[in-house]
Amino acid sequence: MPKSEITLSRTHRTALVGCLVGLCAVAVAPFFLDTYFTNVLIRTLLLAAVVMTVDILWGYTGILTFGQSAFFGIGAYACGLVFTHYGFGPGWALGGLALALGSAAIVAAGTGWLAFFHGSSPIYASIITLALPIVLTQVIYSGGSYTGSSSGLSGFPTYFWSLEVWFWIAGSFLVSTTTAGWLLVRSDFGRVLVAIRENEDRSAYLGIPVSRIKTMLMVFAAMVASVAGFAYAAFSNVVAPELAGFQLGTELLIWTALGGRATLLGPVFAAIGIDTMSSWLSGAMPFIWKLLTGIAFVGVIVALPRGLAPLISGLWNRLRPQRHAIPFEANIVKASATRMLQGSFGDAPPLRIEGLSRRYGSLEVLSGVNLVGKGTELLGVIGPNGAGKTTLMRCISDGKERTTGTLYINNVEIASSSPQQVVGLGVGRSFQNTNLFETLTVSECLKLARYRIDGTSLFSRSDTIALPQPSLDILQATGLDKKLSEQTQNLSHGMKRGLELAMVLATEPSVLLLDEPTAGLTRPERMAIGSVLTKLTREFGLCIVLIEHDLDFVRAISDRVVVLHQGAILMEGTVEEVVASDLVKAVYAGHKEEEVA
Amino acid sequence: MSDAILTLSDLTSGYGSASVVRDVSLDIKQGEILAVLGKNGMGKSTLLKTIMGFVSPFGGQVILRDKNVTKAPPHTMARSGVAHIPQENTLFPDLSVEDNLRLGVNSDRLFRQRLPAIEPLFPRILERMKQRAGTLSGGEQKMLLMCRGLISHPRLMLIDEITEGLQPAMVDRMAEVLVRARDDLGISVLLVEQHLDFALSIANRFMILKLGEIVEQGVVDSQVTSDQLSAHLAV
Amino acid sequence: MKLKKVLVGIACCLGMSAYAAEPIKIGIPVGLSGANSVVAPSVVQASELAVEEINAKGGVLGRPLQLEIADDASGAQGAQRAYDSLVFQKEVDGIVAMETTAARNAGLPIVNRGRVPLIYTSFYEGRSCSPWMYINAWVPEQQVEPIVDQFMSEYDAKKFFLIGSDYAFGRGMLKFTREYVESKGGTVVGESYLPIEGSDWTAIISQLRSANPDALITSTSGGAPNVTLTRQLRSAGVDIPYGNYAIDEGTAKSMGGNAEGVYLAASYISSLDTPANREFLQAIKDKFGDDAETPNELSVPQYDGIYAYAAAVEKAGSTEPSAVIDALSEVTVEGPRGAIKMDKQRHAALTMYLGKVASDGSVEVVKSFKNVDPGEQCPQFAD
Amino acid sequence: MGSVTFDILTTAGILFVVASGLMIILGVMKLLNFAHGAFLTAGGYAAYLTGAAGISPWFSVPLAGIVGVAFGLVVERTIIRPLYSRPLDAILATWGLGIVISQIFALTFGRGVQFAPSPLSGTIEVLGIEYSAYRLAVSVIAVLLAIALIGLLSLTRFGLNARAVIVNEDLARGLGIDSTRVRAITFGLGSGLACAAGALITPLLSVDPNMGLPWLVNSFMLVLISGVSFPSLLLASLILGGTQVLISTFISPILGGMTIVVLAAMILRLNPKGFSRA
Question: Which GO terms describe its biological process (chain B) (predicted)?
């Protein structure tokens, strides 16, 4: 982490200015608004803060949640219940607020545990968030006179401050949470969220604890929503089951979609605009109003998936004079004393596989594979298509993949570890396809890869990325060090391959699994990658397992080759031995007798 | 032009930003087997997938009997008489052999009509109609693939490494089936292969694909031997 | 806002020369959408009729009445919007509200803040008290007695089974029913609730059958849960005496044969043969023609409520809120339900009618109970 | 005890009927149809209109099915097809569609409760127990429907194509199966089934613009837990529906109302495959 300096980054400056402008607007607004609008806006501003959290969850991180209203409701009921049944006063208010935060956090953590685990589908997670407010409402209904059941609680003692005060409270809450949210999504951590949305699997394989991040995010979003709910109840002096209901949860989603997901301010303004407008219009045409919002919602989802905000900001950008966007330039430095350089892992081989097999239904893709990968060794895995090479990689990098067998990484049994845990043990894996994180830049991708080791900053962007020497080598060899602020979707195929490799190396693995790292590359690019790989084994003591079709390439860099055929190891030896083997020739040329295996 | 079943002109395609097939031009006449040779990862399968419409080309054209089908979706290609036999994930392993065959034809009526004609070619397959396709041996699965391809009465077959992992007897059997399909039924075949002897034993012409480009092509005659070409394809 | 008031004032002077004075605004928050939207049209019509009649007789204190209708979406959030709009934007002088309990509870803090007299006109589970509120519809004390008494005397029922929707009204009514039954020497052999949206009563009906009670009393939420329960009871062959707190005439009619034999108690039944009711029915028909909604247990108290407010303003001599609140307990309204005075701890003694649904879905009055007392509702307002 | 057994069987039957339309869409299209509740409602109104028109109530179910198919085809073409590559957006769009449909019903028919006539009324005696005739009839229909759906998928040409698309869409396309058309037909079929199910359960219930909503979450859970297999769905309906009835009868109907959601969520958390391999 760089030493904090007195000068603010541009992002922080913008945030500060925006925050101050917002606070000024909040400060003066009550003097220009009549009582009615002040009343309406106080509630709306609190809801807008909840919408902001929905946008972070859904727009940025890709968690489609119907249940954010539940946490709003929990906050509201914490206020209502404490003031109604236990007592009223500053102490009780703080206690109630703590209760709101605590119970929202606990419920969110439970929901996260249910909804997010390695391999859970996003649809399943959405259904869980839908079930949450439904179950919660049911609980409130069955609470009898304690929760007020359907009638809710009303008329409890509360602070009957003047409207201006409440407006300032609600407004500054919205402005401050939105500023925090704005900084969050623009921070390094925000990039992690986007990475999870764009490619959850790949994030996990970079050692990013996806499920934990999602759960933590849910907890924080829940806490913000519960504070909003608490304030809502304290102001309006009413709590009712519908504050926790899924109807409100859906409405929050609709506002987010209409405002423009992943724009943060879009949903906030949409919430304020639409909720105020519906106060006006729904009275005049209750049914039509709902129908129109429904139609607008469907239309926006189908035709304008990014909502209305991009339209407006596009117009704004066209109207104002072109400003030069200063690209975010990152400093790449060498990571100090990395694990890789330390080299030694004791006597145990970095990778040991015993009796590994993998069955898909009745189909046995791998059977009884025994393999040892030593440090400083580049192990080539070859074999015809469908021999189980990629499955082998998958079994090494995800503890839940294999059907039977034992696997040791640096002498630790991987048991049924999730991919990010396996990364923690020292396994790095590159993939066949190169769809990385399309909208992230090269430096953001690299930062992502350093998440496990360097952590990330929540509200700021660090401009320094410490990378181990081999990563730096790759960046230089492929020319990526000149393109750090380029979005990955604009890179050439070769550069994407290089970036992929640099990212995996940035996780400082001791076992590196490479699945056709040179596919689709030109000859010079292959040679460059080849020499980096050789260097990795010789100088940094890595164990590399390489799947490759190009035997020339394997011959040039590999010490030992394993031939996989129909899920079993056919032979093992030096490249020369293998190439000379009639058996292997037969397999490759198709002469092989089926019985041989 | 008119005697070509399939014409490719300057076809370029790939995935994302990577060009895997580059400027490939070729044509196949009726009743001709064209072998596309080359090592793994040289773009052969992608070439077939592009023709079939699974991969949309970056540039160039695919002409099927005077009709531009460059952007046609796979099912349209299949229905225009192109049978694709891919290399991986070729069967529905949990469906029965019969169901797999039925999927080769558009209607069950045609299926029943055509089945008897296919029977002599694949006697062993048809004995196992009710068995799940996944339980067949590797060789039998390949035969089932051929059988499914032929029952659709294609004009053109795109065959991807059908001999991979086959024992010699089966390879010979496969060669026989393909030759009969060409000579008796007038079916054209675009044959992607690594098995040189097999390919050269049945192909009329060959071309070699390297890093997505055609680097050599010619007519298969006694002068062309597998040793000559194997330089390009060496293990 | 001031300017607007002046303009409105001018408009009134120019347009309605008969009334030189500014109109008295009455806010009607009502569930135009949501659960109450079924009865809302009849409530609006009753309000419009009352205002028209009063204005035709010269208004109140020489000022015309004017309605401000706002949708409360039958829930708390909508009600807050509606009350905000009525109290702070439209600046109404009084509110007459037929709403759900949740909506009323949501509105009360706003009414307290804005100091607006509120007359609540929907039956409810009782014991809602506010310095600014009066209630002219029935509470459990008035509803339960006629039905339970009838079952005990006519059918010699000793064992009662109670079924409800799990919400405040359902629980509140059945709690009182249980107490009343037990005070009269009966027993409650089962009390079961389904979540408020629930409409599959299978398990509860099985419980009912195995408990083998003499009589059944249900208090569900209106609409689907109520009619599905009645239907499923019928198709399960349950034919013990059956009292239903949530059924009204309209529902009974739409259910046809399924509702036959169901008992209900009400402060208003449209077939009441009194001059006041005949006149009222005719007036509704004359004013709304084919669009006229059948008056019911919810729209008639609304009609009465507006008359009550008008009478209180007249008596207080102004729309000054606290004066009106004081006057409300002293005025008597002669409406279709008879004479009603809200002098029982902000509630009113009501004449209750015991009805039984006939085979064609119409409701026959079996008995009437004069001036049933609402009991101890809001002791803090006892005179 | 006997009537509890009937309760379990008939509840399972109803759940199966209600969820089957959702399942076929999820199976073939990998799309969770959040408008399912609205389609059930549409079926309810179809039954109501059939009754109001004086047509025999026995016809309401097939008529609702036909209307549902037609409507489903239109919806697929206009809303679903552009969203195939965005499954979470498809959820939202169908959810929005559900809102629109229920608002249209509210505008057309009012918020009030309507009734559809029941083709069978009263009770019949089975094995010495008086039980609601129509509930039993619905269960019989559920079993027939299960057989028909399993038959459709395993015996017909469409079923074969659909199974091919489920397992390996690319391969299916390469064999000449127009997967877009299979999806369209599937969505039509799914919405037809949903509407027919709505019409079928309506005589037990009543019709209002939101009648389908309470069924939605339970259906989601059943479908998620049973993977893409009608026998598993039958099993899941029996186990979860049965638990619901037992809890409702012997503990509390309020807990019973949450049984399916909570139980299914726990099962899926512990074994993400649910009953699909059972």
Answer: L-amino acid transport
